[in-house]
Write a structure and sequence with these properties.
This protein has 396 residues and is α+β, with helices and mostly antiparallel strands. It contains 17 helices and 13 strands.
Amino acid sequence: MTAPHLKAKALTNVKHRPAKELCSECGLCDTYYIHYVKESCAFITQHIGELEVQTHQRDRNLDDEQELYFGVHQEMMAARKTEPIAGAQWTGIVSSIAIEMLTSGKVEGVVCVQASTDDRFTPRPIIATTPAEILAARVNKPTLSPNLSVLEQVERSGMKRLLVIGVGCQIQALRTVEKQLGLEKLYVLGTPCVDNVNRAGLQKFLDTTSRSPSTVVSYEFMQDFNVHFKHSDGSTEMVPFFGLNTKELKDVFAPSCMTCFDYVNSLADLVVGYMGAPFGWQWIVVRNDTGKEMLDAVKSQLETQPVMSKGDRKPAVQQGIAAYDNATTLPMWFAYIINFVVNKIGPKGLEYGRFSIDSHFIRNYLYTKRNYPKKLEAHVPEFAKRIVAQYKLPKN
């Protein structure tokens, strides 16, 4: 049982945010587990290295480029469902794993995120106990989401075997309080995450970028260097990265995302995303035996292929540093030309993943240095420092 004084503390501090403007709204501080926030919050105390050992039973090998970039893992592959789930963001691998883990009895509940009944992009975390509830959570909600706000419900429910789906900042907090949850088994299914926004920021992004903001159902920054907007009429709108209105959008992303260095969700057991796979496939990273158990549950439903890597990311990354700093916005006709060329000769597969990590880590390193210089040394993990050190950065 949790101490009564912790419950009381939660009731009086529901709106309190110890990380202040760096709060990623992971939901932990909406519970009595706020007691552990100093150690658990990724933006107060960064300790991915320590938690990797706790979770995966070994350190990340920083001399191995694959692990330097993508974290501790046993294997990686590209995959897609042979029979996609209707309405899923891609083919429905995450939903399928969650459903199989639940229906097989391996878990009693799944922490996932449905949409608010009032707004398709406002997240509503739940503990799903039926396949229908899991399916209702399909499609990403590209806004800050308080997934961990349901942790008190887990304790009250008496569940002992739980699957949590989440992003890096949520999972770092979860791993820190994991032993306090009283679970017999915790499964963590992660997705890569970068550049989240609050709801107002999302609206600005949609209004600035999409031809029809009111009909966007989901979107993703994809490997073909386009933002893919899926609309309610079933159409897909593609906008080149290089044509985004950088001047308008430069400050739209949450400060927590601008100071994050866990793009690849290092502390999940299994990660499913797109960043290291060819276009049309999902990238799967098995980090430990628990992750392998989850993947094995749906392996028969998947078509797989080995990961691949092609191209040279470094010139594009180096050129992009000044372009971002100067908020360069290109005419759309020129953006389409650049997009065509980059898709022919640019980085693909794991090299695209490294391109994306390099670009975001450099941006976030500079943001942290400029806005939170006293946090820089302790906040930036060693693997991120090594990645950023490959490039020439502005002096200020």
